[in-house]
Design a protein that fits this description.
The chain is an alpha/beta fold. The protein has two domains: 186 residues, L-asparaginase, N-terminal domain (Rossmann fold), CATH 3.40.50.1170; 113 residues, Rossmann fold. It has nine helices and 16 strands. A hairpin with an 8-residue loop joins strand 9 and strand 10. Helix 3 packs parallel to helix 8. This is asparaginase.
């Protein structure tokens, strides 16, 4: 019988209302979740890492969670790990874990969009499906995955697509890695190869700026003047910015601020053959880095880890090489 550790961090899956509380908050404990779950031939045991909404989670606490998971993976009495997490920042936490953990056993992240007091509470179904994946040895080759609404998603591709729907998570452009159907786990494809970024600390001073039509440079100027270590730009399409942004991005790079460009489309590689000012060729010329196939929030997480790990500009650039994995 597979022995699966469920590491709880809070979020809606643990939410309930109290008599003196206006709204639902994370308060449900592991033994209470266990009492509601069917056994299904898997032995579950629970440990609490935190009990907070995921809007309160930080990348630094995510790195701390990664250390805890690494210690649990080394235990002989653990065959797989399930992490319960709030949906607001789940995609960032799962990607941080995927980048920073050497996976030797299945690691699965799940949660819920409905509180326990809702008649359509989805937490138990998600937790049961996640445990089933964590008990599947072949899932160790997938890296850290998200299991939601019986679908299995890769950490680099998964995005929160809806705030309330049970199928809140998807992998735009790629689709799920597989599905859970009853007690069977079906794997349809493998994720892209991944490259670990081992670091003892991450760089928290990294800003994310999303481009919009006619956007001025006030936010960019604030980031530069504040002396941040890195700036992620969610640019248009395959990597394009308004022409009036170029001098300021060049200045940031001259001040040794790392500028990383992702697409505001949220997925897909970067690059184009346009010759006008502000297109991909100009960004390439001034020396920005490119976050291929990553959303802005994930690109920020990767840059935080890369800045914490890199011993110089060449190693930093290597983490974002177009030929590298995600």
């Amino acid at each position: 019988m597979a022995r699966i550790l469920v590491l709880t961090t809070g979020g809606t899956i643990a939410n309930r209302r109290g008599p003196s509380i206006a709204g639902a908050i994370p308060s449900l404990k592991g033994d209470e979740l266990l009492a509601m779950l069917p056994r299904g031939g898997i032995e579950l045991f629970f440990e609490e890492f935190a009990n907070v909404p995921s809007s309160h989670v930080t990348p630094a606490s995510g790195l701390e969670l990664a250390r805890r998971v690494a210690a649990m993976l080394a235990r002989d009495d653990v065959d797989g790990i399930v992490i319960t997490h709030g949906t607001d920042t789940l995609e960032e936490s799962v990607y941080l874990l995927d980048l920073s953990l050497a996976i030797t056993k299945p690691v699965v992240v799940t949660g819920a969009v409905r509180a326990t007091t809702s008649v359509s509470y989805d937490g138990l179904a998600n937790l049961a499906a996640a445990a089933r994946v964590a008990a599947t040895p072949a899932a160790a080759d997938l890296g850290v995955v998200v299991v939601f609404d019986e679908e299995i998603h890769a950490a680099a591709a998964v995005q929160n697509l809806h705030p309330h729907a049970r199928g809140a998570f998807g992998s735009p452009g790629l689709g799920p890695l597989g599905r859970v159907e009853g007690e069977r786990v079906w794997l349809a494809r493998r994720p892209f190869p991944r490259k670990l970024i081992a670091c003892e600390h991450l760089e928290e001073m990294v800003d994310l700026i999303r481009l919009t039509q006619g956007a001025d440079v006030r936010l960019l100027r604030h980031s530069i003047e504040d002396g941040v270590a890195g700036i992620v730009i969610e640019a248009f399409g395959g990597g394009r910015v308004p022409p009036w942004w170029l001098p300021h991005l060049s200045e940031a790079i001259k001040r040794r601020v790392t500028v990383l460009v992702a697409s505001r489309c949220g997925t897909g590689g970067l690059g184009d053959d346009y010759g006008y000012v502000g297109a991909y060729h100009d960004l390439q010329r001034i020396g920005v880095l490119f976050a291929h196939n990553l959303s802005g929030p994930k690109a920020r997480i990767k840059l935080m880890l890369a800045l914490g790990a890199a011993r110089g500009p060449s190693e930093l650039r290597g983490f974002f090489d177009e030929q590298m994995s995600r």
